[in-house]
Amino acid sequence: MTAWNDSRAKDALNRIFMAAVASADPAKVLQHHLPSPPKGRCVVVGAGKASAAMAAALEAAWPHVDLSGVVVTRYGHAVPTSRIEIIEASHPVPDDKSAEAAKRILAAVEGLTADDMVIALISGGGSALMIAPAEGMTLADKMAVNRALLASGATISEMNAVRKHLSRIKGGRLALAAKPAKVVSLLISDVPGDDPSEIASGPTVADPSDIATVREIVARYALDLPETVRRVLEKGEETPKSGDIEEDVRMIAAPSLALQAAADEAVKLGLTPLILGDSLEGESRDVGAVMAGIASSASRKGLPVKGPAVLLSGGETTVTIGKGPAGKGGRNTEFLLSLALTLKGAASIWAIAGDSDGIDGVEDAAGAVVTPDTLARMRAAGVDPRQSLVNHDSYTAFKAAGDLVVTGPTLTNVNDIRAILIE
């Protein structure tokens, strides 16, 4: 067998990553989860990074069904559609288009009957893309909340609990607004555990979180919130709970399925895959250090898997921004920089990590790759990788090394895909 080198390893890792992404392509998977068309109207609404691609897939699957409606996606993620309107808005911090989208979506489901059907196309990113501030709040208030949450280190579940209780559309309220029409939710999961109530803050499913939990999250992370937001939380209006709305939820793509597709591709490449989990959370730099330890053990001792092998994982780590300077980077490049620093240039270990939507944080890269000489190339380019990690400037470091992975928007979103190849 040909020996593994940087070129071969990077090619293999890219193929593994793209196999995971391809497994969540709405054009391939959505048609298998559709209900029977309704007797009455079919209104399509949705929000998320994959919502436009999902809308296009629905139109292709139902060419003779009278569809109408509106979905919102991230800037640059729209695709051509003929019957369903596409709105683009800002992510991860919402803008006025996010508010307009929510208003249009709520209007689309007004006045429906029991013979009508609402198909909700929901994917990750919908929380920021579809904003309807609670009574007494402004869009600026909601934007301030999102900024505070993104910098807090809170988990995605905790962020969503707060968002739901400050919204007129999330946490099941969209489904409530559509009554008595039947609501069918087609979901692409980007959250640990694939909980439908967490994906895009669960606009069409009952919310298990409560106002007391939200208040505790705000206190624990010492969130700096506008006074208007604090008054809403003090008022304590609850989200719809189980029994308040009927649910028909269909998961069309998820991290676990993407990781299995990655594992299947690894086998084709002569590698033994080991899936470590699809729900890994924690600080990106901490997870990177832990993964480096596992990879080192596999390389030196054949534990937990003997090479040539690939360690696969998914989920969503977090980056907590402190009071010091913060550069450019997302959770995947920060994970990789920490992994590389812990490995210290160890031979015969390569890695890739990227967001399956093609955008790591707010930069133009999905993620990056690590090779045994990545740190050396960063230093040769005048970059101190350890200081870059301190400054959350991982994007700049990997750009200097020439190791960024740029895919452009993939039009789907099953969260992060990480793969570590061990010879």
Assess the beta-strand content as a share of residues.
15-25%
Q: DSSP helix count?
A: 16
- Overall pLDDT confidence: 95
Structural class: alpha/beta
Using only CA atoms, what is the Rg?
Answer: 22 Å
How many β strands by DSSP?
12
User: Distance between the terminal alpha carbons, to the nearest Å?
Assistant: 12 Å
Order of helices and strands: HHEHEEHEHHHHEHHEHEHEHEEHHHEE
Please list the strands of the largest sheet in the order they lie side by side: 3-2-1-4-5-6
What does this structure look like?
- About 40% of the residues lie in helices and about 20% in strands.
- It has about 425 residues and is of the alpha/beta class.
- The longest helix has 18 residues.
Fold topology:
Layout: H1 6-22, H2 26-29, E1 42-47, H3 51-61, E2 67-74, E3 85-89, H4 96-108, E4 117-123, H5 126-129, H6 139-150, H7 156-164, H8 173-178, E5 182-188, H9 211-220, H10 227-235, E6 248-253, H11 255-268, E7 272-280, H12 284-301, E8 309-315, H13 331-343, E9 349-355, E10 367-370, H14 374-380, H15 385-390, H16 394-401, E11 404-405, E12 416-422
Parallel strand pairs: 1-2, 1-4, 2-3, 4-5, 5-6, 7-8
Antiparallel strand pairs: 8-12, 9-10, 9-12, 10-11
In brief:
With 423 residues, the chain is of the alpha/beta class.
Supply the key terms.
single chain, 423 residues, alpha/beta, 6-stranded parallel sheet, 6-stranded mixed sheet, 16 helices, 38% helix, globular
